[in-house]
Write a structure and sequence with these properties.
- It contains six helices and 25 strands.
- Helix 3 (about 100-105) packs parallel to helix 4.
- By secondary structure, it is α+β, with helices and mostly antiparallel strands.
- A hairpin with a 2-residue loop joins strand 3 (about 50-55) and strand 4.
- It has helices at about 15-25, 65-75, 100-105, 130-140, 195-215, 240-245, and strands at about 1-10, 25-40, 50-55, 60-65, 90-95, 145-160, 165-175, 180-190, 230-235, 250-255, 260, 265-270, 275-280, 285-290, 300-305, 310-315, 330-335, 340-350, 355-360, 365, 370-375, 375-385, 400-405, 410-415, 420-425.
- It has two domains: about 10-155 and about 170-175, Beta Barrel (Hypothetical Protein Pfu-838710-001), CATH 2.40.320; about 230-425, no CATH class.
- The protein is about 15% helix and about 40% strand.
- The radius of gyration is 23 Å and the shape is globular.
- GO terms for molecular function: magnesium ion binding; thiamine triphosphate phosphatase activity.
- It holds the Pfam family CYTH.
- This is CYTH domain-containing protein.
Amino acid sequence: MSIVEVEIKFSFNEEIKQSIIERCTSFGGEKTFVDKYWDHPTLYSLSLSNIWLRQRDNRWELKIPPTQLQDINNNNNNNNNNNDYNSNLSTYQEIEDPKEILNVLVNLKYLSSSSSSSSSTFTSSSTSTPDEILKKRLEDSGMKEYATIKTIRTSYLLTIELDTFTVVFDQTEGSLNDYQVGELELLVEVPLTATDSEKQSAHKDANNKVLLLAKLLGVNQGDTNMKKQRAKIEDFTQAGLAAIASAQEKVCVVKSVNGQVSNVVWVTFKPFAQNQISWKEEYGLYASSTQIQNGATISRLSTLKAAAKGHQYPFNSSGFFDQADSVSVTSYGLVNNYGEPLTFGLTQSALINGVQVDSELNATTVLGNQTAEYTPIVTLSVFVQSQQNNGSVISSITSQSLTLTYTSDTTKAVFYDDNSNSFVEGNLPN
């Protein structure tokens, strides 16, 4: 039997969490583990193909869409990913044997078929363990650890007829910033002798069951079911990269809120020749005492990591966000019940070249007992500028910026023009 994991991820707050727990059949336990993720540090060829290689408490695991394994069996190694990576629903096959992991990576051409190191092949005379051999082959190819994440996982079991689903609530901390995410999971056993048609039928059946449960629990409603947006910021020439590095500049992205370009830099990064930013239209709220002045970096006092659109959240006198009150709003609302003026705004996570960050989108001063409402718009301003960080307050964009407006499209390509020292939408002309 091979095990296929079908999962759907969702954001949650305490109200959503408690509602789900009440429907669960039993408590599954709590555990803590550390994941070390591996990939090429500049290409991120695995993670950008929805393949995840990690050491969980030093045990190797590879999570890969079954469609890519079918490509191996069909000798079709074009790395097409037919898994619906743009949705929250994912189907993976988990591989834990280091020898099998190496074989898969070689067949999909993420690793070369041979290595010059005599200690990096699986032979009966080898003195190295399979774990050590796999690590050596990865290092020889230029791959390395790019993130270490500690996760505290609380799990519950929910049995419906003959199926037992696992519901997990993860709280992470580490090099990808603190983050919380929920997950509905169903493990499916598929006979090794099953045909491709039988495997696809089993996957589809499991997918439908998970989606149905997600709908029942209400975790696939609203923003949590929206597709990922992407910006491919690529085609930097070596001269362009050198010029940006010499000027100590970074790529800066500002998002629009309430119909205008925001006063906070959402994300910044030092560019490679090719870069990718992806995100979902999911938002949180923050409170801060940082004064809104040019150059200041927002320092949070409290964060509501998952806010639901159409709700208003009181920031209470104890200094944290309460559950949503009965007030209905159009977008994302809050009321400052702390008793003093504070800085508030939206937060949003993004995946930048395979590394997840969580940053502020905007900043407004809200007086005591006053309300605020924020409407984010999927319009980005992209530019290069020095002395900016994630969450930096910016009074104006001093360099030439490119405006990207997303409507029905989910991906936009951008290249850097060395002549104008600015970004241009589209692909670099030949």
